[in-house]
Description:
Elements (H helix, E strand, L loop, with lengths): L1 H4 L6 H9 L6 E3 L7 E3 L8 H13 L3 E2 L15 E3 L6 E6 L4 E6 L7 E3 H13 L8 H46 L5 H18 L14 H11 L2 H7 L2 H11 L4 E4 L4 E3 L5 H11 L1 E3 L5 E3 L5 E2 L15 E2 L9
Parallel strand pairs: 4-8
Antiparallel strand pairs: 1-2, 3-5, 5-6, 6-7, 8-9, 10-11, 12-13
Helix pairs in contact: 4-8, 5-6, 8-9
Amino acid sequence: EKLKILGVPMYKQKLHSTFRNPFYCGLLSHGMLEGRIVEGLHDKLISKEDFLKIHQLNINAKGVGVPHSKEREEVPLKVFIKCSACNQPFTGYLVKAKNLWYYKCRTKGCKCNKSTAKMHELFELELKKYELEPHLQAPLKAMIEGTIGNFQKQREENQEGILKRIKAIDEKTDSLQEKFYLNNEMSKEIFEKLLAKLTSEKQELLPQIKLPINSISNHDDSLNKLVAFSSKLSSIWDSGDYANKEKLQKLVFPEGIIYDKENDVFRTSKVNTVFRYISTLSGDTDKKEKGQIAFSSDLSFYVGRTGFEPATPWSQTRYSTELNYLPF
């Protein structure tokens, strides 16, 4: 309150971190010091006695302790999950009396918290929605192969267009030089201005014709890995360490995930396109008597009339999808 009157707003979190920082009691700690703590020359904000007393209080504190480590194996979903009520990320904390970990919303008074066991179980159920079932492996591979094929075809057409534009620029350049040097039809100032414009247009186009175009066959191994990976998302997440869990989370849900406490469900703002297709295939297909699959979704892709058994070659399929990137 005193600092606020002086025009220096101080929040309890900032005050807490200040009293815990050895810099403010005159000590220096840095990676280049190889673990040593040295006495600094700067003025001290906190006496060493108060600093040690505060740390001793923190060590002896009972009940709830909020971990400050960035990575805790017990709470891989912290920050990744946001509260539906206030859109703030969750943090993790340990109830020492019970030795149980919980997630809670960072907003004071929101009272949105859940045990890690229940939250992880709910998250694994959410991942299962995007797992690939065995009978959908062929449709997914055909869908992605068709998308890659169309993308490569479009790339080839774009490069043909770029080459035509470069050829047209070269012709204009030759014509411009002829008008200036041979026919003397313009001033040097106008010539140089027009030539600089044509040169600039060509320089912008040249890097685009150097992009490699890979064959569809180069993706076979990656597609097989994707199928195997997509078939066991929840088990991979459950058995992974903190880093791998975090990678998988961001892969499937690039913008994180929202927890709705009222309905005890997750809501997603964005799902990786590949896994969104898997979810669509799982939810919008009807099994026919002969095991074939007929799509009833309104996605704009079409499959050759031979169906997936035998699998339709990618060259005979036509897809218009929104596949922006693949997780491999």
